[in-house]
Design a protein that fits this description.
The chain is mainly α and 96 residues long. It has a domain of 35 residues. It is built from 4 helices and no strands.
């Protein structure tokens, strides 16, 4: 009886941990091998996620003049060669 009394309090937490461990392993195996729980969605790339966030946050430009100015700048923030040529032509025309 002395041995049984000293082991019983130790066995209860061990048995509980073992039972929950078996449940966790069973759930993992079921999710991995049963077709109902498998996801058909493919993960999106970082570029797709960033584009969706920008589309969600940014509002379209309604002013045509501002939209034209925004389009005249290149990706690196510098004015494109075409925009510079159009500006120089626009400045030269009114001198009649």
């Amino acid at each position: 009886m002395i041995v049984y009394d000293s082991i019983a309090p130790i066995l209860i937490p061990i048995i509980l941990v073992a039972v929950f461990g078996v449940i966790v392993i069973a759930v993992i195996l079921v999710k991995r091998h049963v077709g109902i729980f498998k996801s058909d969605e493919k993960p999106k790339s970082d570029k797709e996620i960033a584009a969706e966030e920008l589309d969600r946050l940014l509002q379209p430009i309604e002013d045509e003049e501002a939209a034209q100015q925004m389009n005249s700048y290149g990706k690196d923030g510098e004015e494109s060669q075409e925009a510079k040529a159009e500006e120089s032509e626009a400045k030269e025309e009114p001198k009649e």
